[in-house]
Amino acid sequence: MMQEDRILELGDELYEALRGCRTLAPLTDREKDITIEDAYHISQRMVDRRVALDGERIIGKKIGVTSKPVQEMLNVFQPDFGFLTDAMEYPDAAEIPIAGNLIAPRAEGEIAFRLKKDLAGPGVTEQDVLDATATIIPCFEIVDSRIADWKIKIQDTVADNASCGVYVLSKTEVDPRDYDLPNLRMKIYKNGEFNSEGLGSAVQGNPLTAVAWLANTLGEFGIPFKAGEVILSGSLAPLIPVVAGDEMSLEIEGIGGCSCRFV
Questions:
Q1: What value does the mean pLDDT take over residues 68-95?
Q2: Domain residue ranges in the chain
Q3: Which of 36, 113, 129, 226 has the highest Cβ tally under 10 A?
Q4: Strand, helix or coil at 187?
Q5: Alpha-carbon distances of 234 from 98, 140, 248, rounded to whole Å
Q6: pLDDT of amino acid 79
Q7: Cβ(77)–Cβ(71) below 8 Å
Q8: Is the dihedral of CA 239, 168, 172, 51 positive or negative?
Q9: What b/e sequence results for 13-35 when a residue is b if at least 16 CB atoms lie within 10 Å of its CB, and e otherwise?
Q10: Cα–Cα dist 50/15, whole Å
C-alpha cells in the first residue's frame, strides 16, 4: 500500500490538473508499485477536493472501459470506476464549453440508470440492480484525461476518477423492465453523420451486469449506491474525439436519444 501522504499528494496533483486544464505524466511511470487500490484512494482524494473546495456534491457513480472497442482503443483491459458530481451533469441539447473545462474530450454513448433504492455490494446480482432501478436514460458521457496523451493504464484512469469529464442525460427516462437491455441498439451521429453503433450487450454482455459489477467493486471499499443516484454503465461503441464546433447526437431504438454541442 502506498504511503498516505503520497496518496494525498497525487490526489491533489490530479485535482490541480483538473482545475488548471493541464496534464500530468502517467502515475504508472512515476510510481512503479501503484495498485488499483492505491489508485482508488488517490481518486477519492481528488473527488474530496472537489467537494470540499468547490462545493460539488456526489450524485452518482460510473463504470468505464467495459466494452472491447474501448479497451482496445485505450489498451486497458478491465473496467474502471469513479464518482459523478452535480457539476459534471449537463441537460439534453446542452452547449458544453471546452476551453477552461476539458482537455482532450471524447464522447461515449451510454445507458444511464437512475436508482430508486440503495444498493450495496458485495453480492449484488443483475436482478438486484433491476429491482433498485427507477429508470434508464440515454446518455453521453464525455470522458477526459488529466494524464498526458491518454497514455493510461488501469491505475492511471482509476486514480483520475475513471477519466470523468462531464455527462449529458436525455429528457427521456423509461422503465428498464419494459426492454430487453442487451439488445437495445444505439446509433451515434457526429455533426449529423452516422458515426457508429452498439448494443447493450457491449458492456459485459448486459448493462445490468456492468452495474452489478460496479456495485460489488465499490462495495469492497465500503461505498454504496444511494437512491436517486445516476449510474453510468459504460460505452456501447468506440470513443469519439470532439473539438469545439462538433455536435453529437445518439438514438436508442424504441426509447429516444440526446444531443450536445461543443463550444
A1: 89
A2: 4-262
A3: 113
A4: strand
A5: 22, 10, 17
A6: 82
A7: yes
A8: positive
A9: bbbebbeeeebbebbbeebeebe
A10: 7
Q: Please, what's the largest Cα pairwise distance for the chain?
A: 51
DSSP state string for 203-255: TTTSHHHHHHHHHHHHHTTT--B-TT-EEEEEESS--EE--TT-EEEEEETTT
Measured distance CA(208)–CA(176) in Å, rounded: 10
List CB contacts of 164: < 8 A, sequence separation 6 or more. Answer: 62, 82, 83, 84, 88, 141, 143, 144
- Fold of the CATH domain 4-262: Fumarylacetoacetate hydrolase; domain 2 (3.90.850)
Share of the chain above pLDDT 70, in %: 100
Closest CA to 210 of 159, 107, 144, 141: 141
CA dist 235 and 30 (Å) reads 29
- On the question of pLDDT at 103 being above 90, the answer is yes
Q: Which residues contact 180 (CB under 8 A, 6 or more apart)?
A: none
**What's phi and psi for 60, nearest 5 deg?**
175, -175
**Per-residue pLDDT tens digits for 49-64:** 999 999 999 999 999 8
* 221 backbone dihedrals φ, ψ, rounded to 5°: -100, 10
Starting at the edge strand found earlier in the chain, the sheet holding 185-190 runs 94-96, 256-262, 247-252, 185-190, 193-199
Residues 47, 56: Cα–Cα separation, whole Å: 9
Sorted by sequence, the CB contacts under 8 Å of residue 228 that are 6+ apart come out as 59, 114, 115, 116
Distance, CA of 212 to CA of 41 (rounded, Å) = 21
